[in-house]
Amino acid sequence: MNPAMNPAAPHHLPSFITAPGGTDHLMVVAAFTLVGAVLGIGLLFLRLHTLPERMAHKTHKIQFEIVAVLGLLALFTHVHAFWVAGLLLALIDLPDIPGMFGRMAGSLEKMANIAPGRGGDAASDAETAVPGPDGTVPVAGAGIEEKNHA
C-alpha cells in the first residue's frame, strides 16, 4: 500500500481525483472552458450590440452618426430603448433633403450662368450691378455680357 494514502480511502480512485502535488487536469480544462465561454459570450454580445451601427454603415445611411450615438448610449446606460431606437433608425431610409436642395440649387445656378457655389452672392451682385458705359450688365461667373433692356 502507498504510504501517502489514507488507509480509509479506497484502493482505486477515479481519474478526476489527483494525487497530492499533481496537476488537476479537470480544473485546467474547466478554466480554459470558462475563459473561452466568457470571451465567446462577450464577443456575441458586442456583435449583437453593434448590429444597428453595422447595418447603417453598410447601407450608407445619412443617420449613421445618430445610430452610432444611440448604440453608445445603450452600451453605457444599459437602457435598451436606445438600442431599439438605433435599430429602427438603421432600418428606415430617411430622405436626403439637404442633398436634394443642393442639387436643385446647383441646377438653378447652371441655368442662370452663375458660378457653382456662388448662388446667393452672385444673385445679389447681379441685382445691384451697375450697367457699364455701353449699357451692358456683366453676368457673374460666365463672362457673358447681357444687354440691359430696362
User: Whole-Å distance between the termini?
Assistant: 125 Å
| Low-confidence region ranges | none
Portion in beta strands: under 5%
What's the gyration radius in Å?
37 Å
Output the number of helix runs. Answer: 6
Quaternary structure classification: single chain
- Provide the succession of SSEs: HHHHHHEE
Mean pLDDT across all residues, rounded? 81
- How many beta-strand elements? 2
Description:
This protein has 6 helices and 2 strands; from the N terminus they run ααααααββ. The N and C termini lie far apart (125 Å). With 150 residues, the chain is mainly alpha-helical.
Please summarize what this structure is.
The protein is built from six helices and two strands, in the order H-H-H-H-H-H-E-E. The protein is mainly α and about 150 residues long.
Task: Itemize the secondary structure elements and their pairings.
Elements: H1 25-49, H2 51-58, H3 64-77, H4 80-91, H5 97-111, H6 119-127, E1 136-138, E2 145-147
Antiparallel strand pairs: 1-2
List keywords for this structure.
two-stranded antiparallel sheet, 6 helices, 150 residues, rod-shaped, mainly alpha
